């Protein structure tokens, strides 16, 4: 994909920039209008002197008066008048096609248009590129100021004028926003004239651009200019599942492409019978499961009949109308007589498969041996050495605690005191005795020659 501004490659074909029509270098232009009168000889019309000018890669297009001393041609960069100075844009259309664009956008010929001043020179282009490079940093700072003032709004895009005297802030919000204090902060921060313009979520996606679920660029940023309301009934008529994540576009609203084929579906659905959800037969009641609109088939299933439970019958429109007429008269057909589909195969069909049972032996599955707990701990914590971990089975809790030798006070002998004087209950060990006994068990055995 490439545009007319890209360099020429091999065999005279445009090389393309590789960004698929939405680059930030200014080489591509969105919302282009195909000039089908380029190779056609046209009579010179001196009375028509309007031209269509594109700003910021097609995100905004306006009509200007093309005076005879300028006579800007298509793809020329020109300097045009504005309410607060001048702006720089590119001529996108001239001649007879401008008349058609005026008629399509319902703009009257007696409207007052601004003029094209001159063809842009190098200094004008440099100033315009400087203004474009300032937009990203300005948007980041503007969002921080809006968040600081706790305003329920989102700044989606910023467009500087060619002379850097004015900046237009495009924002989205659920309702009205009082941004009088915000404008004071913006004017103090950026030192330019501020214009706030509220747009919808679809217009924001058109200005920013992106790729849709189909893999192509968004329709709103390439060719779609008028946005029609999309409802969930469009998805129901096309037998689509009501899944909000799949039916929503980049803007968070329902996809505009749901309306593209809706008229075709509506025309075909007129041929389908109404109130045909249930058909009565001798085998039982058959209920409608789904419809194939383009094949003109309706799929039914028995729910009460155990013999045909789970089997789906595909009926044509004529067969459904016939059964409905019989049901209105109180008659019931013996069976549905479904239509044979192409993807279904008969039971006695030879598919060409061979029975390979006992002929092919698969190799035994190699199972990974499960290591012990110590190896798994080593792999998880490589820094821990083997000496820092106690060997298995040496935990104090696994061994029963020996009963300590408690001597009775005031008596000689090694008889343990079994009961307490107060309540015939065994005496509880204090925490100090418990620690002392634990330390005794951990002491190493005495060697020969130790006096201590």
Keywords:
GMP Synthetase, Chain A, domain 3, five-stranded antiparallel β-sheet, alpha+beta, 452 residues
List the helices and strands and how they pair.
Blueprint: E1 50-55, E2 60-65, E3 77-82, E4 85-94, H1 96-104, E5 116-119, H2 122-148, E6 154-160, E7 166-172, H3 180-190, E8 193-198, H4 201-208, H5 219-222, H6 232-237, H7 244-247, H8 262-269, E9 278-281, E10 284-292, E11 297-302, E12 312-316, H9 317-328, H10 373-380, H11 431-442
Parallel strand pairs: 7-8
Antiparallel strand pairs: 1-2, 1-4, 3-4, 3-5, 6-7, 9-10, 10-11, 11-12
Helix pairs in contact: 2-3
Number of strands: 12
Q: Please state how the strands of the largest beta sheet are arranged side by side.
A: 2-1-4-3-5
- Biggest sheet statistics: 5 strands, antiparallel
What sort of overall outline do the alpha carbons produce when their principal axes are compared? extended
- Average pLDDT works out at 75
Query: Architecture of one domain in CATH?
Result: 2-Layer Sandwich
CATH-defined topology of one domain? GMP Synthetase, Chain A, domain 3
Structural class: alpha+beta
The H/E string reads: EEEEHEHEEHEHHHHHEEEEHHH
Q: Write down the oligomeric state.
A: single chain
Share of residues in helices: 10-25%
Spatial gap, N to C terminus: 94 Å
CATH evolutionary superfamily of one domain:
K homology (KH) domain
Q: What value does the Rg take, in angstroms?
A: 42 Å
Highest-level CATH class of one domain: Alpha Beta
């Amino acid at each position: 994909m490439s545009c007319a501004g890209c360099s020429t490659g091999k065999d005279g074909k445009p090389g393309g920039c590789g960004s698929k029509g939405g680059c930030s270098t200014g080489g591509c232009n969105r919302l282009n209008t195909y000039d089908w009168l380029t190779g056609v000889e046209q009579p010179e019309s001196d009375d028509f002197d309007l031209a269509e000018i594109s700003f910021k890669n097609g995100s905004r297009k306006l009509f200007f008066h093309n005076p005879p001393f300028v006579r800007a041609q298509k793809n020329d960069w020109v300097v045009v008048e504005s309410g607060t100075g001048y702006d720089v844009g590119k001529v996108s259309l001239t001649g007879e096609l401008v008349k058609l664009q005026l008629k399509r956008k319902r703009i009257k010929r007696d409207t007052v248009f601004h003029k094209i001043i001159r063809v842009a020179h190098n200094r004008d282009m440099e100033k315009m590129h400087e203004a474009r490079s300032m937009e990203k940093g300005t948007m980041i700072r503007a969002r921080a100021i809006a968040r600081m003032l706790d305003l329920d709004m989102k700044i989606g895009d910023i467009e500087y004028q060619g002379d850097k005297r004015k900046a237009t802030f495009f924002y989205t919000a659920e309702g009205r926003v009082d941004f009088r204090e915000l404008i004071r902060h913006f004017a103090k921060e950026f030192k330019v004239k501020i214009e706030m313009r509220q747009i919808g979520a679809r217009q924001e996606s058109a200005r920013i651009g992106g790729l849709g679920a189909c893999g192509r660029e968004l329709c709103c940023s390439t060719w779609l200019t008028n946005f029609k309301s999309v409802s969930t009934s469009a998805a129901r008529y096309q037998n689509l599942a009501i899944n909000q994540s799949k039916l929503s576009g980049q803007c968070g609203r329902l996809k505009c492409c749901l309306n593209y084929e809706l008229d075709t579906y509506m025309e075909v659905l007129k041929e389908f019978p109404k109130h045909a959800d249930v058909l009565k037969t001798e085998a039982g009641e058959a209920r409608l499961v789904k419809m194939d609109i383009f094949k003109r088939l309706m799929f039914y299933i028995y729910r009460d009949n155990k013999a045909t439970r789970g089997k789906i019958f595909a009926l044509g429109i004529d067969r459904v109308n016939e059964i409905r007429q019989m049901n209105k008269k109180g008659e019931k057909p013996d069976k549905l007589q479904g239509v044979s589909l192409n993807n279904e195969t008969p039971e006695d069909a030879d598919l060409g498969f061979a029975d390979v049972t006992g002929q092919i032996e698969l190799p035994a599955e190699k199972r990974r041996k499960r290591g012990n707990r110590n190896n798994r701990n080593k792999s998880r914590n490589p820094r821990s050495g083997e000496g820092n971990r106690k060997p298995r089975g040496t935990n104090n809790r696994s061994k029963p605690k020996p009963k300590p030798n408690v001597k009775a006070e005031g008596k000689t002998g090694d008889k343990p005191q079994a009961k307490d004087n107060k309540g015939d209950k065994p005496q509880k060990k204090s925490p100090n005795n418990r620690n002392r006994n634990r330390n005794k068990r951990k002491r190493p055995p005495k060697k020969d020659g130790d006096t201590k």
